[in-house]
Every structure is written in structure tokens, then in C-alpha cells.
Amino acid sequence: xxxxxxxxxxxxxxxxRFGGFRLDAGxxxxxxxxxxxxxxxxxxxxxxxxxHPGRIVTPLELQEALWGDAPVMADSxxxxxxxxxRKLEPxxxxxxxxxxxxxxxxxxxxxxxxxxxxxxxxxxxxxxxRGIPEYLGAAVAxxxxxxxxxxxxxxxSIVARDSVFTLARRSLAPRQIGExxxxxxxxxxxxxxxxAHYRLRAEMVHAADGSQAWVEDLLVExxxxxxxxxxxxxxxxxxxxxxxxxxxAAAAARxxxxxxxxxxxxxxLETYEILQRARYEWQxxxxxxxxxxxxxxxxxxxxxxxxxxxxxxxxxxxxxQALYGxxxxxxxxxxxxxxAQGSGEAAALAEGILPVLAWISFHVDRDLGxxxxxxxxxxxxxxxxxxxxxxxxxxxxxxxxxxxxxxxxxAIRVDPWSxxxxxxxxxxxxxxxxxxxxxxxxxxxLERFPLHEGVQLYGAYILxxxxxxxxxAELAGGLAQRLPYFDxxxxxxxxxxxxxxxxxxxxxILERLEWLSRERYVLKSFSASAYVALxxxxxxxxxxxxxxxxxxxxxxxxxxxxxxxxLQESPEFRSMLDALAAMEAGAESSGRAxxxxxx
Length: 599
Fold this sequence. Notes:
single chain; 28 helices; 5-stranded antiparallel beta sheet; Arc Repressor Mutant, subunit A
């Protein structure tokens, strides 16, 4: 559930008073005692604004809440808001903020008691039977969840996707997953291919006892699969009406999609399928599949340049490839900037892109002030995996370990079966110098997620540093063998071997990485630790120098690594630390200037 829904969930059926108006719980707007007719779109937009008085609601947020992913004209949002503004005249309730969005400029009062906590809904990836594209079951579940979460008022609180999908991959029963995630309801089912149709059987299960709440069969033509997730969301919202859901939420979940001409629908179908395949491919975290995914995403933008979800995926994919060492950070930054700028204002303000732009501002542009401004703009009270990831990495790079640990512990409470927060929590304790805690954390993560690449990577490094080098070398070696193009795994393997006293084997890996760097980009930050373990301090400084020049996203984190303590007296190492201090000073100066202008 995003920041818009989370803030308003408790007052989903409240009556609002603002200016000289009253909006009752049933959705009728009154000026005094005179009813003012509103269209469903106008009502949904007004509810969204009322739920967040004084806050700027962006055009993208309005478009997603009112139309979902349905293709609409570029001026659809502005026309809807202009119509709503006319109905609120002569009072100046609705304000347009240039290039940012809309907000209510009057006091808003929500009347009545909160409707109580929303039911927690876990949506499992649908089982794809023979003849179904492998990405489709997960895509339908994920997109239906997003649509239900965006509905106004929200009919349910959607349980974190990563935890749900992690447990589903373990073939647990829906009831077990619901119990483990403290969900009230679980939505699951299967996709079957028929000669001319796809059949989706969706089943809602009570997590408390495993009993079936309802079952739906959806049958769609194969050439109209792009509407399946919106129909599923719409039917789910209708089924949840017993809890008081208004017609506005069901309409928003479905998206009120327009009827398209055959040629336009064919193009939309192709775009949808390519986008979903790209999402599936790049989340495998394999180098060649991530590169294929980038080509798929570029193809979707060729078909529909204004498709914001594709632009968000491009930015996130590029940042991830840079973190994995699969793409030079400068190239990733350039592609992400193009994705943010290519579709105009809406994409530039998209919450999915802002955290990536913050990452670029800090690591590539070395502008901490800009990074902090972007993260403030993207901030939301509800948990968002991407925002948490970027905020955590920035905090670690700035040596704000307590802040990073707090962010990660909060993430784990919301998303307890997502591997990345638990792996990064162990890493944060390691960088903070909490050796005992870091080892305990990484052991717990390895026990829960023994085959996850991030858990294995951080685990091998932390175990090697803390006297368990043989175990670490076995762990990192297995990861490097399983993912042969994952240079970080090779580097950590070299480090573990060096700590285990196998110096020749460690040097052989480092020499191979040096040779590979002549042909393609190789991430060097972690090599410094292996060289320090070998006693080769000049080579360690050279690796850090290379990482600095390449704007490696791990560079500032590695400067805090306890393994590099022997380098701290080096003038070159101190100058690297001075660069971070200068960025902090620049951000503080910029912040004071902004405060002065605001006053």
C-alpha cells in the first residue's frame, strides 16, 4: 500500500468538511444543503485530495488512482481536475502547483470514527500451468495487488510482495503463508491455457482456518490478456464490498479502461507482454538476463514512449546492474536520467525513479545535497522496498550506521521474508564494527535464505573477517561457480581465500579480474580488502583509486570497512575520506541556504 493509501486507510468511509462543502461517506458532495453531481473520476480525485490536505498530489498519482495502467490522453488528469475545480467555484479550494501537481488549499476535517484496520491481504503468484508464459502468473498477481492498493478508498492492506513471493517459492500452502505473514486473507489460484483462451481461477482463503471465502473463474481471449489483472482487481474489490468498499474503489481498481481500436489494442498487448517479460527477466539477477531485460524495456518505450512503468523499470534495472558490477555507473546514470526525462513531468516525479536519481546524485555526481532533496521528495510513511534500499545504501556510505540499522529493522518488521534487508542488516553491523552482532545476523540470514546470492555474498565476507575463512571460501566459491559472471562473488572468494592463507589461489582470482578489466567494466571496491589481506597495500589503494574514478556505488561503504584499517594512515586514503567530508559540508551549506530562502 503506497503513501497515499496508507495515510487515509483509517478514514476510508469518513465524512469530510472543507471550505463551504461537505462530502458524505456515500460520496455525495454538498454546498450547504445543495448536492453537486460528481463523476466517478471527479469523486475519486476529490477523495484522494481530501485524504491528504495541504499535500501536493502529483499528476502521476492521480492518473494511477483514477485510470490505473489504462492508456489515457495526456491531458486527462488536467481536464478532470479542471472540471472538479469548476464545481468547487467560486471558492478557491483547489490549487494547481506549477509543474508539481494539485492540492487542497483549505482546512479539511474528517468526521466520524475511523473504519478500523483494513484486512491484510497476501496475493500469491498464480500457478502457471503448461502452455502459460513463465512470467505471467507472477505478473498478474503483482499488478492486481498494485491496483487494489491504489483503489480509493483502499479495500485491504496488501502484504509486502517480496515476503509473499519468497514463501510461495517454497511451495507452502496458502494458509501457512497467511499465518506466517499475519495476513487475514490470501488470494491464490492458477492460470490454464485453453485453445483460444486463458482461464484464471482465483480463490480467496481465510488465513485463520484455511477455509475458502470465495472462488472466481475468469476467462479471457489470449489476445486480450493485458486486461486480466485489472479484471481480477475489480472482482476482488467487489468481493470485499461486504467490508464497506464503495463503488469508487472498485472502479479505480478496474481502471475504467477505454475501448481501443484493434490496432491500438494489439500494440498495447505487445507492450504489456514485453514489459512483464522484462520485469521477470531482470529480477533473476543474472547478467545476461538483465541485459536482455533492458533491451525488452527499450522496445516497450519504442512502442509507447510515455509508458511510465517501463521508465521506472529502466532506472531501477540500471541502478541494480551498477550495484552488481554488470554496468559502469556512468552508463547506468545516463540511461536512468534519460528514462526520467523522456516522458516529461510525470516520469520525472515518479516515486519509483526519484530514489534512483538520488543514488546517482550521490555516487556519480557527488552531490549529497541533491540526493537528500530527491529522497525527501520521494519520502512516504509506508514501507517501499526501493526507497528503503536507496536510503540504506546512502546512510551506509555516509557512515550513518545507526540510521541504516533502524531503516533495515523497520523493513524486516514489515517484510520479514525478504532476503535483502536481512543481508544488509548484517553488513551494516559489520561496517559499524559490531562483529558479534554481524556474525549472528548473517548466520540467521543464511539459515533462512541459504541460496540467496546477496545473503551468501555478505555472509562470506563477514564470516571471513571474523575467523571463519574456510567456511567463507566454500560459500563464496560456490556462489562464484553458480554465477560465473558475478565479479563480486569472485572478489569475495579471493578475499576469503586470502584470509584462509591460500594466497596463491587468491592472487590467481585477482589477476583474472585484472585481465577481465581490460575488456569490460569490473567493480574494484571489494578487491581492496583482498589486497589488504595479502599485505599488498599499494595494490589495495590502486583498487580504491580505480573504484573512485569509476564512481563505484560501493566506494564510500568500503572506506568504512574494518578490513581496510591498515590503510587509514595513508595520505591517499585520508584524501578519499576528505571527499566525503566535503560532500557533507556542501550539503549542510545548501540546506542552510534553502532554509534561509524559505524564511
